[in-house]
Design a protein that fits this description.
The protein is of the alpha+beta class. The protein is built from 6 helices and 10 strands. 43% of the residues are buried.
């Protein structure tokens, strides 16, 4: 199978600064999106360090050593947490992180926060990650029969992020890649404003990753561009 990839980010039409960062590294076969946490200071620095630390963590692995993704994410989190203690001792800094690392025919996903990984396979779009939000945590508690209470204005608040005090619990899982699979890593500037049915249509109709990424960002901006938007697109042919 041949992998074609492309990444693009846009500040949108409202925010003064783009606090999203991304990685599209063909050599490492490593792809990632990080979104600086709104409401906290230094979001751009948080997401930039998140991406840089992730890339270094994979680059520095001894040849032949299998990556321990949970350990790598824990180290990324420590570095961002330490920077937050310097830049913002009172509040800290934070970022989401969603990445995909291709090893053979396995696409290894690591995830913290509410950026997302999506897969288009046989015309069906599936989200491979779960948003770490108050709303989802409350739903899980309810499913277990546990008591729950949630203020609606807090439902989208994150329960986990890169930069939080250690330890951090990340979601790590692997998926077997099939010919003609298409994958998208996106910040919530896309996933919150472009409906899944629209994402499916854009990913399906695009002739190559660059046109898919551009159309997704254009679509988010057509809805007002209320947030930074970032898309990392991978096509397997």
């Amino acid at each position: 199978m041949k992998l074609h990839s492309f990444a693009q980010s846009d500040v949108g039409r409202v925010r003064p600064e783009n606090e999203d960062s991304f990685l599209c590294h063909e050599g490492l076969k490593l792809y990632a999106v990080a979104d600086g946490i709104g409401g906290l200071p230094s979001g751009a620095q948080a997401s930039q360090l998140t991406i840089a630390a992730l890339q270094k963590g994979l680059t520095d692995l001894p040849a032949g050593q299998k990556p321990d993704y949970a350990l790598i994410i824990a180290d990324v989190n420590k570095q961002v947490y330490s920077l937050g203690r310097l830049l913002s001792p009172q509040f800290g800094i934070g970022s989401t992180l969603t990445f995909a690392h291709l090893t053979g025919v396995k696409l290894n996903i690591g995830h913290v926060g509410d950026s997302c990984a999506l897969r288009l396979r046989a015309k069906a779009l599936e989200q491979l990650t779960r948003d770490h939000t108050v709303e989802n945590e409350m739903k899980e508690r309810a499913a277990r029969g546990e008591p729950m209470a949630m203020l609606m204005e807090n439902r989208n608040a994150l329960t986990r992020c890169i930069g939080q005090p250690p330890p951090i619990l990340a979601d790590c899982h692997a998926h077997t890649v099939l010919p003609h699979d298409r994958y998208l890593l996106a910040s919530d500037g896309i996933s919150r404003f472009v409906a899944p049915s629209e994402i499916q249509e854009i990913m399906q109709q695009a002739s190559e990753p660059a046109s898919a990424a551009q159309r997704l960002i254009d679509c988010a901006n057509e809805r007002g561009g209320l947030d930074n938007s970032t898309a990392v697109v991978m096509f397997f042919d």
